[in-house]
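Hi R.,

Here's the chain you asked about this morning:
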Amino acid sequence: MEKRVKVKPNSQQQKIEELADGSLNVHLKSPPVDGKANEELIKLLAKNLMFLNHLLQLNLV
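And here is the predicted structure, written out as tokens:
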């Protein structure tokens, strides 16, 4: 499965919004520093999409 994800770090709350085109807006509490936001993103997606962390791959663009 492949999904386009737009990440918004430093948000007030952690949440995932699915848009009409199937892409995701992901709001993270972590700052985009030292990979903290990437770690939070992987954990949140794994939890909500029911994948194991090691099965997720980030392709940053």
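One quick note: The radius of gyration is 11 Å.

Cheers,
M.
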